[in-house]
Amino acid sequence: MLEFIIGLYEGFLANPAVEIWQDPAYFIQNVAGGLMVGILYSLVALGYVLIYKASGVFNFAQPMMAIFATLALIMFHDKVLFPAIGTGYGLTIVLAIIGSMVMMLILALLVERLMLRPLVNQPEIILFMATIGLYYFLEGFGETMFNKIANSPVPMESLGMEIGPFFVGGVMFQKVDATAAAVAAVMVILLAVMFQKTSVGRALRAVADDHQAALSVGIPLSVMWVVVWVVAGAVALVSGLMWGASAGAVDFGMVFVALKALPVLILGGFTSIPGVIIGGLIIGVGERIAEIYWSPYLGDSIESWFAYILALIVLIYRPEGLFGEKLIERI
Amino acid sequence: MFYREAGQFKASYGTDQAIFPIAQDKWFVLAVVAAAYLVVPLVANSYWYEVILTPVVVMSLSALGLNVLTGYCGQISLGHGGFMAVGAFAAFKIATAFPELNVIIVFLISGLFAAFAGVIFGIPSLRIKGFYLAVATLASQFFFEWWFQQVGWFSNYAPSGTITAPSQEFMGVVISGPSATGVVKYLIGLTFLVFFCIVVKNLVRSHIGRSWMAIRDMDIAAEIIGIKPLQTKLLAFAISSYIAGVSGALFLFLMRISLEMEAFDIIAISFPVLFMVIVGGLGSVMGSIFGAVFIIGTPVFIKNFPELTTASVILVLAGLSVAWLTKYGVWRWVPLVIGVPLAVFVFFQKFASNTAEHIVLMFFGLSIVLVLIFEPNGLARLWQIAKEKFRLWPYPY
Amino acid sequence: MNATARKKANENAETMLSVEHVSLSFGGVKAIRNVSFDIRKGEIRAIIGPNGAGKTSMLNVINGFYHPQEGTITFKGEKRSDMRPHIAATQGIARTFQNVALFKGMTTLDNIMSGRTLRMKRNMFWQALYFGPARREELEHREYVEEVIDFLEIQHIRRQPVGKLPYGLQKRVELGRALAMEPDLLLLDEPMAGMNLEEKEDMSRFVIDVSEEFGTTVALIEHDMGVVMDLSDRVVVLDHGVLIADGTPDEVQSNQDVIDAYLGISH
After folding, report:
1. In chain C, whose CA is at the least distance from the CA of B13?
2. Single residue among A258, A286, A320 that ends a domain in this structure
3. Torsion over CA of B80, B84, B87 and B91, rounded to 10 degrees?
């Protein structure tokens, strides 16, 4: 027993502390790396929060949408392949982005018409399960449609993105990650302005609160839904690109990384944009540090569950996440 | 005409509280069970056992477990595969450590380990609700996935972590492992399924089941009539994961014989089982079986009868167009817009083997959405409606 | 027993519940400020007041759903300042809600049966087999529940899911669920809200019958003054979380503070 406790102490505290003390540069390098991964998590989680805040739907299919949008962009951009037509048209990157967004618009329209509208006023959990259905459908549909271009790289040059490392005060960063961080910052500001300052934002918050009440004051629910899903599609495209860029290639296997965005979501709080940013950073850094310094004690690849357990422990103390709105139950 | 309860008078509350208060229901279910035991072994071949029958009984059991938690107690779980894995690995360890112990007992014991795991991961459910809980249940899934792969002891230090069910004889018949015959494995699975169906049915019609449903429908009011939320939820977690654990053990010993941890991952188990519960009917014992038949049967059907599938896809789409037309009017052409290209697309792909899986994915996705839209209570409710219609037949009302 | 005779009888009855110096606030909002009153055994006690006076909060405090920052509650001689709702239920406090809080997915019968949960003791292993004692227990409780169903005249909706019932019937089922608990103290939160005259009369009759036949102590919130004056033995009046009057209906009716609270003060 005593041995076990000593082992715990050494494995979790003493040995990591010694290692950090001996090589602080390595520690800082890993914190920086973790922050960058965290930004990517935040970007995906942002898509979830956006739809949830704006329509009360927890869209499980968000990462599928990200992959779908990115593959669509690659498909439109690629000179060689366009499976439905056979021969191809090389489109410039602008046209490719437009093409991809048009696809997301069509998707939004279809989702609104065929899924959300018939389910209006249903409990949130039913809508959530419907989006799991959407997740499966998009995966099957996407795999069939983009079969031939799966595993393609993101067209970095056309997007004006650079790859390779750069150094700030001796700490190495990837340019891709820095771009992702900048993009995330811009998006958060844009979304915050949209939610707080515009009438569309106000209408969206009303819709999220109560479908029926929103309808009864004349908010066009279906238009709002399409707007949200298109914006979420844009967020999905951006996050998919960033993510594909840092992973090297885009394919449907990437969705497993997206499952990492879920603990970010519950850690930060479903309704909070700052929450997901900070939650993403916490989880990005936390799992990197845990992986490096605890794996000698716990075993390899604890990254696969660390984020979840961390989020779970936080939730036991704060059931609404770090930044979520606290509900006062009335009866 | 035949399905009438007229003339069946109940003289005591006992008869009124029976599982099947209507005689026809009782006889029908008994007949189905009898057929499953007696007729199926006469007609089925090994392909059927391998691909349909054993998977259906094992996964029905798994879905039944999830239905207790999600359907009756309202706690949505995405980590069911993790608890099944606990059962499978526990059964493997026990069976290899004590080769003399009858596997049936091994199965029942291994469920206890899963129940324990379920209780541990169910504790947060007191404070965490809804989506937060749904995501939090993934913690158990990923944790167990990692643990069983990481710690070699669980797989008896097999390279790549593969576990294989050992063979065992009981009264001269091989009842588990690679050399057991399809019919034996099927009958063992069926027996477990029938037993747990009865147990769950009894629980849900008792005060325990009513407490679960009370928590599901309105947890605050439940607490105010004296239901203890934590105990009630934990009991649901325990029973749900006990059943999951037993089904996990069956999954290893009867269905797969040899597997790695990936067999229990979220895509392979957790989501499909959730789908079974949704499609079959949340809060319905029979629905769990319907759901398993649907989710397991569909891919087999698609792979074996591609032409028939194409035809039925087109038929279903046409039917849906009509349904949409009557229900939502204006945009009636929408299903046609997706349906026709999709059908054509599907037709031209001719189900090359790699895309058949993708078709199945699409089909599952679509069916979930459709079930939620048209019949949120699942196939079990359709069955009810069919009975209601049959009750009046041949008169319209 | 006519109403006056009953009131006489109650005057000397022992105190069942007493609320002493209770204050409750949510953040900066003070819902209840230093309120004290008591409920005697067997009486019908009304709590009235304008909207937002803190009536429902008071009931929530009594059955442990809200935890007051100050003050104590003594129920059947046991003093407490903090408790969980299910413990209040074990001690014998049942209630209904302003917005019906039924279990929508369950039938009327199951809803009322769920009120018996506390009294059902057999564990899950007996229940899993539905055999012997478990079955006998279930049937005994079913009998009691059928009595409640008969009492409330809702036999015809026994097998219907309550989510689909009209509002008036839902309120009745909710009362049935509370009665099935065989409570000592029954808290009714606006039992007649949104009802027409006939339904109100039915409900009033049920409340009186509950009080007389079962001997249950009743505390009720109601806005309809006619109902309050006819039903209740004593009335508490709250306004902005403060107790402004406490006494028999006649006393309260002539109290100047009460008149001001309801009609507003002309300055």
Report:
1. C139
2. A258
3. 180
Q: Would you tell me which residues 6-45 of chain C have a C-beta closer than 8 angstroms to some C-beta of chain A?
A: 26
The pLDDT of residue A207 is 81
- Cβ contact A331–C65 (<8 Å): yes
Q: How far apart are CA A41 and CA A35, in angstroms?
A: 10
A253 plus A311 within the same structural domain:
no
Question: Domain boundary residue among A258, A280, A305?
Answer: A258
Give the residue-averaged pLDDT of A299-311: 84
State pLDDT tens for residues B300-343.
887 787 777 767 766 776 676 666 666 655 455 566 556 665 66
Say whether B205 and C130 touch across the interface (CB within 8 A). yes
- Please indicate, yes or no, if residue A322 is contained in any of the structural domains: yes
Give me the mean pLDDT over the A108-134 stretch: 85
Rg of the Cα atoms in chain A: 21
Give yes or no: residues A191 and A292 share one domain. no
| A35 in any annotated domain | no
**Which residues of chain C does A331 touch, with a Cβ-Cβ cutoff of 8 Å?**
56, 60, 65, 97-99, 101
Q: Is residue A61 located within the same domain as residue A183?
A: yes
Q: What are phi and psi of A258, to 5 degrees?
A: -65, -30
Tokens of residue C187, six digits: 């808290």
User: Which pLDDT does position B256 carry in this prediction?
Assistant: 87
Q: Does C63 touch chain A (CB under 8 A)?
A: no
Contact C103 B217 (CB under 8 A): yes
**pLDDT given for residue B276 in this prediction:** 92
Task: Kindly state whether residues A242 and A291 are assigned to the same domain.
Answer: no
Does one domain contain both A164 and A309?
A: no
Low-confidence residues in chain C, pLDDT < 70: 1-12, 81, 265-267
Annotated domain spans of chain C: 1-92+183-267, 100-182
Q: Specify whether A193 is located in the same domain as A268.
A: no
What is the full DSSP assignment across C184-214? Answer: SEEEEESTTTT--HHHHHHHHHHHHHIIIII
Which chains reach chain C with 3 or more Cβ–Cβ distances below 8 angstroms? Answer: A, B
Q: Any CB–CB contact under 8 A between B168 and chain C?
A: no
Domain contains A270: yes
Separation in Å, CA of C87 to nearest CA in chain B: 7
Q: Give residue-wise pLDDT tens across range A133-142.
A: 999 988 888 8
Fold match between domain C1-92+183-267 and domain C100-182: yes
Q: Which of A58, A135, A140 sits opposite B359 (nearest CB)?
A: A140
For residue A209, pLDDT beyond 90: no
Q: Across residues B258-277, what is the average pLDDT?
A: 89
First to last CA, chain B: 12
- Give percent of chain A with pLDDT exceeding 70: 94
- The verdict on A93 and A224 lying in the same domain is yes
Tell the CATH superfamily of the C1-92+183-267 domain: P-loop containing nucleotide triphosphate hydrolases (3.40.50.300)
A301: domain range?
262-331
Is there a contact between C99 and A331 if contact means CB atoms under 8 Å apart?
yes
C100-182 maps to CATH 3.40.50.300: yes
Residue B213 sits at the chain C interface (C-beta within 8 Å): yes
pLDDT of residue A298 exceeding 70: yes
Q: For residue A214, how far is the Cα from the chain centroid? A: 28
Do B193 and B293 touch, CB atoms closer than 8 A?
A: no
Judged against a pLDDT cut of 50, whether residue B351 lies above it is answered with no
Q: How far apart are CA C227 and CA C251, in angstroms?
A: 16
Q: Is residue A273 part of a domain?
A: yes
**Alpha-carbon span A213 to C35, nearest angstrom:** 36
Each residue's pLDDT tens digit, A14-66: 788 888 888 888 888 888 888 888 888 888 888 888 888 877 888 889 889 99
Instruction: Quote the pTM value.
Output: 0.89
pLDDT of residue A85: 47
Which one of B206, B282, B388 makes the best mutation probe of the C interface by having the most chain C beta carbons within 10 Å? B206
Helices B285-304 & B271-280 angle (0-180, nearest 10): 110
Selecting from B217, B222, B226 the residue whose C-beta is nearest the C-beta of C90 gives B226
Could C114 and B214 be called an inter-chain contact, meaning their C-beta atoms sit closer than 8 Å? yes
